Amino acid sequence: MYDQPRPNPAQTAMTFDQMLERVRYEGAHPTRERAEEAVRTVLAALGQQLAGDERVDLAQALPVEAALALTAQIPDTEQLTGWGFIKDMAARAGTTPAVARWDTGAVLAVVARLAGPDLLARILRQLPGGYALLFGQAELRQPQPAR
Fold first, then answer.
1. Gap between the Cα atoms of 61 and 79, Å rounded
2. How many helices and strands, by DSSP H and E, does the chain display?
3. How far apart are CA 9 and CA 53, in angstroms?
């Protein structure tokens, strides 16, 4: 027999408005509009880093408006490290890396909850180093063999 895709049990689905309120709270954003700007910017950038089943499954786990922001971007052929992602976010938003890191962490913490642990683990396996911390997870590395 072959492996059947199994459903990814994510957290309770939320509406886009609920997602924005959660990001607003997590990121201490002063307005809903500022939270929405962060969500759309971060998800557009993440959409350039993810491909394949992980991208499709994440889009299915997100509210429709968030999924559209994620999937509107064509995946890049070269992936950015976690730090490269933050620098790219800062350039996109015209802000400092510290603010970009804060916004990214607020958005991706909510995305991690919506994705659930199985999908999040698959996403982190696909991405280069440095992303686990952005999703609010520990960055565990396998020991490298001695040379």
1. 22
2. 7, 0
3. 16
